[in-house]
Amino acid sequence: MAVVTECSHGWVLDLCPVIDQGYSHCIRLTDGGKSHVRCRFKRQCFQISKSHGSADVITSVGEGNVDKINKPLKKRKRKHAELNQGEIDARVYHDGIRAVISEGTKTLVDLAQSREYLKGVEDSVAEPLPLQECNLAALCDMAKELPLMDDLELEECAQALVAEDGGLCHVDLFSRVTENRSDQAAVVRLMGEEYVIPAHTSFLLSDFTRTRPLVNYGKKFDLIVMDPPWENKSVKRSRRYSALPSSQLKRLPVPLLASDNCLVVTWVTNRASHLRFVRDELYPHWGVEVVAEWFWVKVTSSGHFVFPLDSVHKKPYEVLVLGRYRSSSHPSISFSKIPEIPVEGARLIVSVPSALHSQKPLLSEVLRPYVGAEAKCLELFARNLHPGWTSWGNEVLKFQHSSYFTVTPVQESAEVFKNEDKKDEDKCQSSD
């Protein structure tokens, strides 16, 4: 269970259990046959124990005290003392939501700490973070040189990952949607690397210009979540991934993928121009009506903001813009089975973030009341997979690489698994 506690302000999430629930029972497929294994996402990825900041002050939202950073980070020298228009807009926006973030986070962290969560790292793992070099985007660039499928081949836009006899199928990852139709997760070797694929999941590994197989997949989705590679100076300096100009996002075939009344959720950076673009240009272009803005608040394992709330460089929160897709053919009539439950505004999702760049929390549990338990879910610009979801992106398997998991043969550690299952079960019950 991901939700540790919930109140009118929002939710506190524990991300590890929700990741692991899809991998408690896996099969590893090799040329020599198959074996049973257990996969657990590495705990050190979520052990954020210290706040980061400059000369700013970090507020401990759980206890109300103030701690100062012992060794402040050096600030980059500004060329000009005055703020530019973008910075002014960002400050105005921050001032408008500051009380919501501060008060709501304090309430949620206090509730979580009363349930013995966010009280410091327990059972910390003294191991370095996985440093797997991801070459998937480069492979997608190379795949663009391949010819597009013709009309006859479009009828075969989906393919099975695991054969009926339990063996690994030969798959074309770049031009067809790949499905793991099994009830078990599978550890498989693809493109020379080992990946962990959840049960009942489907994915397309492709470039932004190759979304046609996803459209021809034939599904209409009730929930679409996207985390676009926004352009910003930090990304440009780090060269972690290729950014996409905002105007190009309009080319995404969202109206062809969305069911009537589909809930569309977009992660947005704290850059005012990006937020304005989503609300005023992107969503209207798709026929999506903005219904709410939520905030993901990132805290340490002891309940502190990961960055100073009022820092001019980095904020401890990110924005989610939620909207409903309204069919242009019948704008006033809804044929959707999705419940038309109003989405409350300014709700908070509080969690310890992953130390891995751009790994976002899974939103299934908090969004379920607004889309229904049987909703078909799609993630665009995905970097990992979720059980029951369809995912697309040029790094869609990035965090499914086996280096991010502890993979253990079941027969060698049956008692360990039994104890861990009991611990996870007790933890979930204590959170109810």
TrEMBL record:
<dbReference type="GO" id="GO:0003676">
    <property type="term" value="F:nucleic acid binding"/>
</dbReference>
<dbReference type="InterPro" id="IPR002052">
    <property type="entry name" value="DNA_methylase_N6_adenine_CS"/>
</dbReference>
<protein>
    <submittedName>
        <fullName>Methyltransferase 4, N6-adenosine</fullName>
    </submittedName>
</protein>
<dbReference type="GO" id="GO:0005829">
    <property type="term" value="C:cytosol"/>
</dbReference>
<dbReference type="GO" id="GO:0009007">
    <property type="term" value="F:site-specific DNA-methyltransferase (adenine-specific) activity"/>
</dbReference>
<dbReference type="GO" id="GO:0005634">
    <property type="term" value="C:nucleus"/>
</dbReference>
<dbReference type="Pfam" id="PF05063">
    <property type="entry name" value="MT-A70"/>
</dbReference>
<dbReference type="GO" id="GO:0032259">
    <property type="term" value="P:methylation"/>
</dbReference>
<comment type="similarity">
    <text>Belongs to the MT-A70-like family.</text>
</comment>
<dbReference type="GO" id="GO:0008173">
    <property type="term" value="F:RNA methyltransferase activity"/>
</dbReference>
<dbReference type="InterPro" id="IPR007757">
    <property type="entry name" value="MT-A70-like"/>
</dbReference>
<dbReference type="InterPro" id="IPR029063">
    <property type="entry name" value="SAM-dependent_MTases_sf"/>
</dbReference>
